[in-house]
Design goal:
about 425 residues; alpha+beta; Methyltransferase, Cobalt-precorrin-4 Transmethylase, Domain 2; Heat Shock Protein 90; 4 domains; six-stranded mixed β-sheet; four-stranded mixed β-sheet; 14 helices
Length: about 425
Amino acid sequence: MRETKTLEFREEISNSFLKTASAFANYEGGSILFGVDDAARVVGLGNVRAACLDIENKVNDSISSRPDYELLPNTKDSTVELVVRPGRSKPYLYRAKAYRRSDSSTVEVDPIEFRRLVLEGSNLSYERLSSRSQQFTFETLGSALKSTVGIKNFDTDTLRTLELYSDEDGYNNAASLLADKNDLPGFDMAQFGESISVILRRETSAGKSVLLEYEDAVRMYRDCYCYERISGFERTKIERIPSEAFREAIANALVHRTWDVPAHARIAMYPDRVEVSSPGGLPTGISEEEYLAGMVSIRRNPVLANVFYRLGLIEAFGTGVQRIRDAYASSKTTPRFLVMENTITVILPVTVADLGLTDDQRLVYGLLSPTVPRSSGELLGMVDFGRSKLSRILKELIELGQVFTVGAGRGLKYKRGN
């Protein structure tokens, strides 16, 4: 047993545990075990009843608002477990400061995160706040609704129905995202050559409707990964990366990102893959396991998500991860999802028809590029097995004609066929 994001050990009772109690109440909840040292050894507290009273008094007197917690004394080993549940009356402050967990440590939240806690405690979100600017036009949104949904009249009543406008507060931030012009971030897109130092093309799509930013990203994707194969009199459209997967990834990057951070979502286009990175980790209340299992039901920007749903750009009920995976059902390469504290990255490899490879062979093959050779040392950092197994898999792929070597000796590297 070790300390985690939701578990902390305390050898004795001191006021510093109140920072962690604040963090647990502000976010996912957690437990603090008193009478256990940092090495997870039980040292005991002595008088368990007195310890419970001391902990209770410190929490009640020092944290505002009062968190929802429970004390579980264990008289057998003289330990006490403080269980703190996620609260609704955020932020929970200790000495006028709010805290959060960062892996197994506790840190003070930054000003942006503090504002989010205040909004969450008021049952509000950034997208529902009144926009600083109230001078907007919505020709792009109106045109999209008329062609997709079939509405005849696009007016203020339509914006009210979409929860983009109210008589009391005017346009909200979600409306500004959909307006024809705004001062908000968007996509930073780049196409790379054989290495990241070779930039073939770069575009920034920002300051306009997210619907136009979505279209800009799709257009650049088509330029880089779609072509026609001519055989006789027949033309066949080829998508090196499934369009359904790419569209889902960029739609989710717009709908689920944090918009109070003035940073662009990033689309990096490589010869063998696309990486779509969006600001903001997972919404509070969703674990990485639930996200990867396609069980995301908490939407960070529900107003914007509703518009995208009505326009047919996303599916309901958080099915994005599964839809991306389904797009690769016939490919031996598979998408990857990197969930970090402040970003989520979706990696979409180019598709290759299944040639009967094993799971391990498919993994190594997917890590190789047709243009940028990689050494075995580089590959070792990307897999969870040892050098001997990696060498065996590479040899098998070479024998199958799927991987080729470049160089020799210490300079030996590997690349895959096109």
